[in-house]
Amino acid sequence: MAQKIITYKGKTLTTTHYLEMSDDLFMQLKQQYYEKPKYNSIVSDFSLLLSGGVMNSNITNYYFKDLMAKTRLHHSNWSIEDVFEYKPLLEHFYSKVHSNKKVYAHENLIDNIETSFRLGGKGTASKPSNYPLDSVYEILRRYNVNNNWYDMSCDWGVRLTGALVKNVNYYGTDPNYILVERLNQLTQDWLNSTKTRRFVDIRATGSEVLHYDWINKMGLCFTSPPYFFLEDYKIGNQSYKENMSYESWLTNFMEKTIQNCHKYLVDNGILAININDFKSGNVTYSLFQDTFDIAIKNGFSHIETIRLENIERISEKRELNDNSEQIMVFMKSGYEHLFENKEPIILDIFDFLDEEWLKIEIRLRKRC
Protein backbone atom coordinates (compact mmCIF):
# COMPACT_ATOMS: atom_id res chain seq x y z
CA MET A 1 0.00 0.00 0.00
CA ALA A 2 1.31 3.43 -0.96
CA GLN A 3 2.54 5.70 1.79
CA LYS A 4 1.30 9.23 2.34
CA ILE A 5 3.45 11.96 3.88
CA ILE A 6 1.50 14.56 5.85
CA THR A 7 3.28 17.69 7.07
CA TYR A 8 1.65 20.30 9.29
CA LYS A 9 3.07 22.87 11.73
CA GLY A 10 6.58 21.54 11.27
CA LYS A 11 5.65 17.93 12.11
CA THR A 12 5.47 15.02 9.67
CA LEU A 13 3.48 11.79 9.57
CA THR A 14 4.22 8.98 7.13
CA THR A 15 1.26 6.61 6.92
CA THR A 16 -0.52 4.05 4.78
CA HIS A 17 -3.82 5.12 6.37
CA TYR A 18 -5.13 7.82 4.08
CA LEU A 19 -8.51 8.22 2.41
CA GLU A 20 -9.62 11.42 0.72
CA MET A 21 -12.85 13.14 1.68
CA SER A 22 -14.78 16.08 0.27
CA ASP A 23 -14.49 19.56 1.73
CA ASP A 24 -18.17 19.35 2.67
CA LEU A 25 -17.63 16.16 4.64
CA PHE A 26 -14.60 17.68 6.35
CA MET A 27 -16.61 20.69 7.52
CA GLN A 28 -19.54 18.50 8.50
CA LEU A 29 -17.38 16.27 10.72
CA LYS A 30 -15.76 19.30 12.33
CA GLN A 31 -19.16 20.78 13.15
CA GLN A 32 -20.39 17.47 14.54
CA TYR A 33 -17.33 16.99 16.72
CA TYR A 34 -17.74 20.34 18.45
CA GLU A 35 -21.54 20.23 18.66
CA LYS A 36 -22.60 20.52 22.30
CA PRO A 37 -25.15 18.27 23.96
CA LYS A 38 -28.51 19.94 24.56
CA TYR A 39 -28.60 21.94 27.77
CA ASN A 40 -31.71 20.04 28.90
CA SER A 41 -29.63 16.86 28.94
CA ILE A 42 -27.10 18.59 31.21
CA VAL A 43 -29.81 19.57 33.68
CA SER A 44 -31.09 15.99 33.57
CA ASP A 45 -27.58 14.66 34.29
CA PHE A 46 -27.27 17.01 37.27
CA SER A 47 -30.40 15.44 38.75
CA LEU A 48 -29.17 11.91 38.03
CA LEU A 49 -25.86 12.62 39.76
CA LEU A 50 -27.67 13.89 42.85
CA SER A 51 -29.72 10.69 42.91
CA GLY A 52 -26.65 8.44 42.78
CA GLY A 53 -25.72 8.31 39.10
CA VAL A 54 -22.11 8.48 37.90
CA MET A 55 -22.52 9.42 34.22
CA ASN A 56 -20.86 12.75 33.47
CA SER A 57 -19.67 12.56 29.85
CA ASN A 58 -22.37 14.95 28.59
CA ILE A 59 -21.26 17.49 31.20
CA THR A 60 -17.64 17.13 30.11
CA ASN A 61 -18.55 17.52 26.44
CA TYR A 62 -20.80 20.52 27.07
CA TYR A 63 -18.30 22.59 29.06
CA PHE A 64 -14.83 21.33 28.17
CA LYS A 65 -14.63 19.34 24.91
CA ASP A 66 -13.24 22.21 22.83
CA LEU A 67 -10.59 22.94 25.47
CA MET A 68 -9.60 19.29 25.63
CA ALA A 69 -9.23 19.35 21.85
CA LYS A 70 -6.57 22.05 22.18
CA THR A 71 -4.40 19.85 24.41
CA ARG A 72 -1.47 18.07 22.80
CA LEU A 73 -0.12 14.95 24.49
CA HIS A 74 3.65 14.50 24.59
CA HIS A 75 3.56 11.39 22.39
CA SER A 76 1.51 13.11 19.67
CA ASN A 77 2.58 15.55 16.99
CA TRP A 78 -0.72 17.41 16.99
CA SER A 79 -3.82 18.16 19.02
CA ILE A 80 -7.31 17.11 17.99
CA GLU A 81 -7.99 20.77 17.21
CA ASP A 82 -5.14 20.59 14.67
CA VAL A 83 -6.78 17.56 13.03
CA PHE A 84 -9.97 19.55 12.45
CA GLU A 85 -7.98 22.47 11.07
CA TYR A 86 -6.05 20.44 8.45
CA LYS A 87 -8.01 18.06 6.22
CA PRO A 88 -5.16 15.60 5.40
CA LEU A 89 -4.87 14.80 9.12
CA LEU A 90 -8.58 14.05 9.38
CA GLU A 91 -8.33 11.97 6.20
CA HIS A 92 -5.75 9.85 8.05
CA PHE A 93 -8.29 9.04 10.79
CA TYR A 94 -11.07 8.73 8.20
CA SER A 95 -9.07 5.90 6.62
CA LYS A 96 -8.60 4.17 9.96
CA VAL A 97 -12.33 3.89 10.62
CA HIS A 98 -12.70 1.96 7.36
CA SER A 99 -9.93 -0.48 8.29
CA ASN A 100 -11.71 -2.53 10.96
CA LYS A 101 -15.50 -2.69 11.06
CA LYS A 102 -15.46 -4.69 14.31
CA VAL A 103 -13.62 -1.94 16.15
CA TYR A 104 -15.31 0.96 14.39
CA ALA A 105 -18.89 -0.26 14.64
CA HIS A 106 -20.81 2.93 15.43
CA GLU A 107 -23.58 4.00 13.09
CA ASN A 108 -22.39 7.61 13.02
CA LEU A 109 -19.11 8.41 11.29
CA ILE A 110 -18.13 11.06 13.86
CA ASP A 111 -18.44 8.47 16.66
CA ASN A 112 -16.03 6.21 14.79
CA ILE A 113 -13.65 9.14 14.28
CA GLU A 114 -13.69 9.75 18.04
CA THR A 115 -13.01 6.07 18.67
CA SER A 116 -10.04 6.33 16.32
CA PHE A 117 -8.66 9.26 18.33
CA ARG A 118 -8.95 7.18 21.48
CA LEU A 119 -7.60 3.88 20.17
CA GLY A 120 -5.26 4.81 17.35
CA GLY A 121 -4.26 8.41 17.93
CA LYS A 122 -0.94 7.86 19.67
CA GLY A 123 1.76 9.63 17.70
CA THR A 124 -0.75 11.70 15.76
CA ALA A 125 -3.49 13.21 17.97
CA SER A 126 -5.18 11.88 21.10
CA LYS A 127 -7.82 13.10 23.51
CA PRO A 128 -6.59 13.78 27.06
CA SER A 129 -7.99 11.51 29.73
CA ASN A 130 -10.49 12.55 32.38
CA TYR A 131 -10.69 11.60 36.03
CA PRO A 132 -13.09 8.84 37.20
CA LEU A 133 -15.91 10.25 39.30
CA ASP A 134 -16.15 7.23 41.61
CA SER A 135 -12.52 7.72 42.59
CA VAL A 136 -13.37 11.28 43.65
CA TYR A 137 -16.26 9.99 45.76
CA GLU A 138 -14.03 7.43 47.49
CA ILE A 139 -11.32 9.97 48.32
CA LEU A 140 -13.94 12.31 49.80
CA ARG A 141 -15.49 9.45 51.78
CA ARG A 142 -12.17 8.44 53.30
CA TYR A 143 -10.37 11.76 53.74
CA ASN A 144 -12.86 14.64 54.02
CA VAL A 145 -11.59 16.22 57.24
CA ASN A 146 -13.51 19.51 57.51
CA ASN A 147 -15.53 19.81 54.28
CA ASN A 148 -12.94 22.15 52.69
CA TRP A 149 -11.12 20.59 49.73
CA TYR A 150 -8.38 22.25 47.70
CA ASP A 151 -7.83 20.87 44.19
CA MET A 152 -4.42 22.06 43.02
CA SER A 153 -5.05 21.43 39.28
CA CYS A 154 -8.71 21.49 38.33
CA ASP A 155 -8.55 19.34 35.20
CA TRP A 156 -11.79 18.85 33.20
CA GLY A 157 -14.44 19.40 35.84
CA VAL A 158 -14.94 15.90 37.23
CA ARG A 159 -13.47 16.69 40.63
CA LEU A 160 -15.54 19.89 40.84
CA THR A 161 -18.61 17.85 39.93
CA GLY A 162 -17.79 15.37 42.70
CA ALA A 163 -17.59 18.20 45.22
CA LEU A 164 -20.92 19.64 44.05
CA VAL A 165 -22.61 16.24 44.35
CA LYS A 166 -21.15 15.50 47.78
CA ASN A 167 -21.73 19.01 49.16
CA VAL A 168 -18.05 19.68 49.86
CA ASN A 169 -16.63 23.22 49.69
CA TYR A 170 -14.37 23.26 46.63
CA TYR A 171 -11.30 25.48 46.30
CA GLY A 172 -9.26 25.20 43.13
CA THR A 173 -6.43 26.70 41.12
CA ASP A 174 -5.62 26.31 37.45
CA PRO A 175 -3.58 28.56 35.13
CA ASN A 176 -5.94 27.88 32.22
CA TYR A 177 -8.12 30.98 32.65
CA ILE A 178 -10.65 29.82 30.04
CA LEU A 179 -11.01 26.54 31.91
CA VAL A 180 -11.62 28.50 35.13
CA GLU A 181 -14.41 30.45 33.38
CA ARG A 182 -16.02 27.18 32.27
CA LEU A 183 -15.71 25.65 35.75
CA ASN A 184 -17.43 28.69 37.21
CA GLN A 185 -20.16 28.44 34.57
CA LEU A 186 -20.65 24.75 35.43
CA THR A 187 -20.96 25.73 39.09
CA GLN A 188 -23.52 28.44 38.37
CA ASP A 189 -25.58 26.17 36.12
CA TRP A 190 -25.52 23.47 38.79
CA LEU A 191 -26.70 25.87 41.51
CA ASN A 192 -29.43 27.32 39.31
CA SER A 193 -30.79 23.97 38.15
CA THR A 194 -30.50 21.95 41.36
CA LYS A 195 -31.53 24.80 43.70
CA THR A 196 -28.73 23.74 46.04
CA ARG A 197 -26.15 25.89 47.80
CA ARG A 198 -22.45 25.10 47.48
CA PHE A 199 -19.29 27.14 48.14
CA VAL A 200 -16.82 27.18 45.24
CA ASP A 201 -13.71 29.36 44.88
CA ILE A 202 -11.59 28.70 41.77
CA ARG A 203 -8.68 30.98 40.90
CA ALA A 204 -6.81 31.30 37.60
CA THR A 205 -3.30 30.78 38.96
CA GLY A 206 -0.88 27.93 39.21
CA SER A 207 -0.79 25.92 42.44
CA GLU A 208 2.75 27.18 43.05
CA VAL A 209 1.24 30.62 43.82
CA LEU A 210 0.44 31.04 47.53
CA HIS A 211 -3.04 32.37 48.45
CA TYR A 212 -2.70 33.74 51.97
CA ASP A 213 -6.43 33.67 52.76
CA TRP A 214 -6.44 29.88 52.37
CA ILE A 215 -3.74 29.25 55.00
CA ASN A 216 -4.82 26.78 57.71
CA LYS A 217 -8.23 26.35 56.08
CA MET A 218 -8.26 23.07 54.14
CA GLY A 219 -8.89 19.61 55.50
CA LEU A 220 -7.96 17.95 52.20
CA CYS A 221 -5.61 18.78 49.34
CA PHE A 222 -6.23 16.30 46.52
CA THR A 223 -5.48 16.42 42.81
CA SER A 224 -3.98 14.74 39.80
CA PRO A 225 -1.31 17.30 38.84
CA PRO A 226 0.40 17.91 35.50
CA TYR A 227 2.92 15.21 34.61
CA PHE A 228 5.84 17.51 33.70
CA PHE A 229 5.42 17.96 29.90
CA LEU A 230 3.07 15.00 29.37
CA GLU A 231 0.26 17.31 28.21
CA ASP A 232 0.50 20.77 26.66
CA TYR A 233 -2.68 22.62 27.66
CA LYS A 234 -1.80 25.68 25.53
CA ILE A 235 -3.63 28.28 27.63
CA GLY A 236 -2.32 30.27 30.60
CA ASN A 237 0.95 30.27 32.55
CA GLN A 238 1.39 26.50 32.68
CA SER A 239 3.82 24.76 35.04
CA TYR A 240 6.01 23.50 32.19
CA LYS A 241 7.81 26.03 30.01
CA GLU A 242 9.59 25.14 26.78
CA ASN A 243 13.08 23.73 27.40
CA MET A 244 12.51 23.62 31.18
CA SER A 245 14.48 20.85 32.88
CA TYR A 246 12.75 18.20 34.93
CA GLU A 247 14.70 19.26 38.03
CA SER A 248 13.61 22.88 37.59
CA TRP A 249 9.98 21.79 37.19
CA LEU A 250 10.15 19.74 40.39
CA THR A 251 11.65 22.68 42.31
CA ASN A 252 9.55 25.52 40.94
CA PHE A 253 6.23 23.73 40.57
CA MET A 254 5.89 20.47 42.44
CA GLU A 255 7.80 21.43 45.59
CA LYS A 256 6.19 24.88 45.83
CA THR A 257 2.76 23.27 45.37
CA ILE A 258 3.38 20.81 48.18
CA GLN A 259 4.78 23.56 50.42
CA ASN A 260 1.63 25.61 49.80
CA CYS A 261 -0.55 22.60 50.63
CA HIS A 262 1.27 22.25 53.94
CA LYS A 263 0.39 25.87 54.70
CA TYR A 264 -3.22 25.49 53.60
CA LEU A 265 -3.94 22.31 55.57
CA VAL A 266 -5.21 22.26 59.14
CA ASP A 267 -3.44 20.00 61.63
CA ASN A 268 -4.07 16.37 60.69
CA GLY A 269 -5.11 17.52 57.20
CA ILE A 270 -4.65 15.13 54.29
CA LEU A 271 -2.59 15.53 51.12
CA ALA A 272 -3.52 13.06 48.37
CA ILE A 273 -1.76 13.10 45.00
CA ASN A 274 -2.64 10.88 42.04
CA ILE A 275 0.53 10.59 40.00
CA ASN A 276 2.55 8.00 38.11
CA ASP A 277 5.84 7.71 36.26
CA PHE A 278 5.96 8.14 32.51
CA LYS A 279 8.48 7.46 29.78
CA SER A 280 9.45 9.67 26.86
CA GLY A 281 11.89 8.16 24.41
CA ASN A 282 14.61 6.49 26.46
CA VAL A 283 13.99 8.65 29.53
CA THR A 284 11.75 7.60 32.42
CA TYR A 285 10.53 10.38 34.70
CA SER A 286 10.16 9.04 38.24
CA LEU A 287 7.29 11.31 39.21
CA PHE A 288 5.91 8.99 41.85
CA GLN A 289 9.09 8.62 43.92
CA ASP A 290 10.21 12.21 43.38
CA THR A 291 6.84 13.57 44.53
CA PHE A 292 6.88 11.21 47.49
CA ASP A 293 10.35 12.42 48.52
CA ILE A 294 9.32 16.09 48.22
CA ALA A 295 6.27 15.53 50.42
CA ILE A 296 8.33 13.81 53.14
CA LYS A 297 10.98 16.53 52.94
CA ASN A 298 8.34 19.23 53.45
CA GLY A 299 6.69 17.99 56.63
CA PHE A 300 4.27 15.27 55.56
CA SER A 301 4.00 11.73 56.91
CA HIS A 302 3.04 8.95 54.53
CA ILE A 303 -0.19 7.19 55.50
CA GLU A 304 -0.87 4.81 52.64
CA THR A 305 -0.85 4.46 48.88
CA ILE A 306 -4.02 3.62 47.00
CA ARG A 307 -3.41 1.75 43.77
CA LEU A 308 -5.94 2.08 40.98
CA GLU A 309 -5.31 -1.18 39.16
CA ASN A 310 -6.35 -2.50 35.77
CA ILE A 311 -7.58 0.73 34.24
CA GLU A 312 -7.64 -0.94 30.86
CA ARG A 313 -8.17 0.48 27.41
CA ILE A 314 -8.67 -1.65 24.31
CA SER A 315 -6.22 -0.58 21.61
CA GLU A 316 -6.86 -0.42 17.89
CA LYS A 317 -5.20 -3.84 17.61
CA ARG A 318 -7.65 -5.26 20.19
CA GLU A 319 -4.92 -5.39 22.81
CA LEU A 320 -5.39 -4.27 26.43
CA ASN A 321 -3.29 -1.38 27.68
CA ASP A 322 -2.75 -1.22 31.45
CA ASN A 323 -2.83 2.37 32.72
CA SER A 324 -2.49 1.75 36.44
CA GLU A 325 -2.38 4.84 38.65
CA GLN A 326 -1.45 5.44 42.27
CA ILE A 327 -2.68 7.93 44.87
CA MET A 328 -0.19 8.77 47.62
CA VAL A 329 -1.84 9.80 50.88
CA PHE A 330 0.00 11.91 53.48
CA MET A 331 -0.96 13.60 56.74
CA LYS A 332 0.31 16.98 57.84
CA SER A 333 0.96 15.98 61.44
CA GLY A 334 1.77 12.31 61.00
CA TYR A 335 -0.86 10.34 62.89
CA GLU A 336 -0.17 7.12 61.00
CA HIS A 337 -1.87 4.95 63.63
CA LEU A 338 -5.27 6.24 62.53
CA PHE A 339 -4.90 4.24 59.31
CA GLU A 340 -3.34 1.02 60.59
CA ASN A 341 -4.89 -2.37 59.73
CA LYS A 342 -7.28 -1.04 57.09
CA GLU A 343 -8.76 -3.82 54.99
CA PRO A 344 -8.32 -3.58 51.19
CA ILE A 345 -11.36 -2.23 49.37
CA ILE A 346 -12.32 -3.27 45.84
CA LEU A 347 -14.56 -0.98 43.85
CA ASP A 348 -16.14 -1.32 40.44
CA ILE A 349 -16.34 2.01 38.66
CA PHE A 350 -17.29 3.01 35.15
CA ASP A 351 -15.63 5.33 32.73
CA PHE A 352 -18.12 6.89 30.32
CA LEU A 353 -15.58 8.33 27.88
CA ASP A 354 -17.14 8.47 24.42
CA GLU A 355 -20.38 7.01 25.85
CA GLU A 356 -18.76 3.56 26.03
CA TRP A 357 -18.94 1.74 29.36
CA LEU A 358 -15.56 0.33 30.29
CA LYS A 359 -15.45 -1.59 33.53
CA ILE A 360 -12.61 -0.54 35.81
CA GLU A 361 -11.45 -2.35 38.90
CA ILE A 362 -9.87 -0.26 41.64
CA ARG A 363 -7.98 -1.89 44.47
CA LEU A 364 -7.27 0.17 47.55
CA ARG A 365 -4.48 -1.19 49.64
CA LYS A 366 -1.63 -0.02 51.82
CA ARG A 367 1.78 0.52 50.35
CA CYS A 368 4.27 -1.91 51.81
Gist?
This protein has 368 residues and is α/β, with parallel strands linked by helices.
Describe the structure.
With 368 residues, the chain is an alpha/beta fold. It has two domains: 4-35 and 72-120, no CATH class; 133-364, Rossmann fold, CATH 3.40.50.150. Helix content is 36%, strand content 23%. The chain contains eleven helices and 17 strands. A hairpin with a 2-residue loop joins strand 10 and strand 11 (283-285). The longest helix has 19 residues, at 246-264. Residues 310-322, 335-339 and 343-368 have low confidence and may be disordered.
Strand order of the largest sheet: 6-5-4-7-9-15-12
Overall mean confidence score, pLDDT: 84
Task: Give the termini separation.
Answer: 52 Å
Main β-sheet, in a few words?
7 strands, mixed
Question: Can you say what the CATH homologous superfamily of the largest domain is?
Answer: Vaccinia Virus protein VP39
Q: What general form does the structure show?
A: globular
| Tally of individual helices | 11
Which secondary-structure class do the elements indicate?
A: alpha/beta
Count of individual domains:
2
- What fraction of residues sit in β-strands? 15-25%
**What top-tier CATH class of the largest domain fits best?**
Alpha Beta
Total E-strand runs: 17
Give the low-pLDDT segments: 310-322, 335-339, 343-368
| Helix content bin | 25-40%
Radius of gyration, taken over Cα atoms and rounded to an integer in Å: 21 Å
CATH architecture descriptor name of the largest domain: 3-Layer(aba) Sandwich
- From the 3D structure, determine the CATH topology of the largest domain: Rossmann fold
Order of helices and strands: EEHHHEHHHHEHEHEEEHEEEHEEEEEE
Q: How would you classify the quaternary structure?
A: single chain
